[in-house]
TrEMBL record:
A Pfam cross-reference name: Peptidase_M16
Native species: Candidatus Galligastranaerophilus intestinavium
InterPro entries attached to this UniProt entry: Metalloenz_LuxS/M16, MPP/UQCRC_Complex, Pept_M16_N, Peptidase_M16_C
Protein name stated in the entry: Insulinase family protein
GO molecular function: metal ion binding
Residue ranges of every copy of the Peptidase M16 C-terminal domain listed in the record: 158-340
Domain Peptidase M16 N-terminal: 31-149
């Protein structure tokens, strides 16, 4: 991997010889919270809805005819525009990339707002999505990470074209990186090409106005419960979660291993074995650890018969407490490490995965070759570290979100 700095552009190059397709990801940092929930996602959709030279239908048809796959996605922290194409079409693909990123008209604003609202309404009909949405919105309350689908539904109509243009001007003056993986030109030719044709990708180290969540959370431990009444459900949807440190913390590898042991490794995880296999409480049960730029969320999830709500919640805490008091065996610890490392290797095989991952890591401030550093950190985790992680979580505030028929919500 090579980090190239040319005329103010940051370029990360993974030179993968003898691979047929090249991936180029353009990353832009968002350094302030959304004015309205959903505006960043709306902005991302509008980038593919026509430019000054091509309407949306023509653009989509030409990209398809030339086998150029384009994906533009926005999160609360960043925008990513990904282009995947045959090696010989590098110049052509980058012409499309430049046109999309520089010449989008944003004229289809009302149409895209209507489509977003329709998609959200359809998604929120799913009990699991509704419970998850409520859970995330509540646990991140007061922070831009609380901008969920339901909140977007409430605010998206307020977005004007001027708001979209403001977002556009902000990202053009933000921290950026171009991440490339493939069998491409040599680094000198590559850097000269982007310096000449993509000068708008010059990066700016702006100070982020998005706060760290840990900065204003209460220190004492307590449990808050949110209940959603929904009739005629065969399965209750339960989430319990904690706000925890993200990737730059010393706890990150420790919580990662803890999560794998508890519920992140599928069939072999403790939650799956204890709550599903032994107690028969659910078909689906898991834990997850989602890291964002400014915080992270560790959570449990189960879909269970409504009568088992209390038993399931007790099961969450029982397994977490057990891990906080008794270290995992050497075999279980090693298995968790191998699972984590194996997943990382599995999801970093293609050029598209590599370009995406390395660009994200760099924009998040994790540096180059972070995957290698992460593997070393995971291998260094010991049993005491897992105990430390479990005790840390147990002593933090948690939120429970339960969706079930009303008669089962008196737990």
């Amino acid at each position: 991997m090579e980090h190239i700095i040319k005329n103010g552009l940051d370029i990360i190059l993974n030179d993968k010889k003898n691979t047929p397709r090249t991936s180029v990801c353009f990353y832009f940092a968002f350094d302030e919270a959304e004015k309205y929930s959903g505006i960043y996602g709306l902005f991302a959709k509008l980038l593919l809805q026509g430019t000054k030279t091509k309407d949306a239908k023509t653009l989509a048809q030409e990209l398809e005819n030339n086998c150029i796959d384009v994906s533009i996605k926005a999160k609360q922290d960043y925008l990513k525009a990904s282009f995947l194409f045959l090696n010989e079409d590098f110049d052509l693909a980058m012409q499309y990339a430049k046109d999309i990123l520089l010449n989008s008209t944003f004229d289809e604003l009302e149409k895209e707002k209507f489509k977003i609202k329709a998609e959200i309404n359809a998604d929120l009909d799913n009990p699991r999505v509704l419970a998850s949405d409520t859970f995330v919105r509540k646990i991140f309350q007061g922070h831009c990470y609380s901008n969920t689908c339901s909140k977007t539904l409430e605010e998206i109509d307020k977005v004007t074209k001027e708001d979209i243009l403001y977002v556009y001007n902000k990202i053009l003056n933000s921290k950026k990186v171009i991440s490339i993986a493939g069998d491409v030109k040599n680094s000198n030719e590559l850097s000269d090409y982007f310096a000449l044709n993509f000068d708008f990708m010059k990066t700016n180290e702006t100070e982020s106005k998005i706060p760290l969540l840990e900065d204003f959370l209460p220190k004492e431990s307590n449990v808050e419960i949110v209940k959603i009444s929904k009739a005629n459900l065969n399965q209750a949807q339960l989430f319990q979660g904690w706000i925890v440190p993200s990737t730059k913390s010393d706890l990150y590898p420790k919580i990662s291993v803890m999560n794998n042991i508890l519920g992140g490794s599928g069939l072999s995880s403790r939650l799956f074995v204890e709550l599903r296999d032994k107690q028969g409480l659910a078909y689906t049960v898991r834990s997850s650890y989602e890291a964002l730029f400014k915080s992270a969320l560790f959570s449990f999830y189960i879909a269970t018969e409504p009568k088992n709500i209390r038993k399931s919640l007790d099961g969450f805490i029982f397994e977490l407490t057990k891990l906080a008091k008794n270290p995992p065996s050497d075999d279980e610890l090693q298995g968790a490490k191998e699972n984590l490392i194996g997943r990382l290797e599995y999801f970093s095989q293609t050029n598209s995965q590599l370009a995406s991952m390395e660009g994200y890591n760099y924009l998040a401030g994790l540096g180059l070759n972070y995957s290698d550093k992460f593997i070393k950190m995971i291998n260094a985790v010991n049993s005491d570290d897992v105990l430390e992680a479990a005790n840390y979580v147990l002593n933090k505030n948690s939120l429970i979100c339960a969706l079930a028929p009303n008669e089962y919500l008196n737990f």
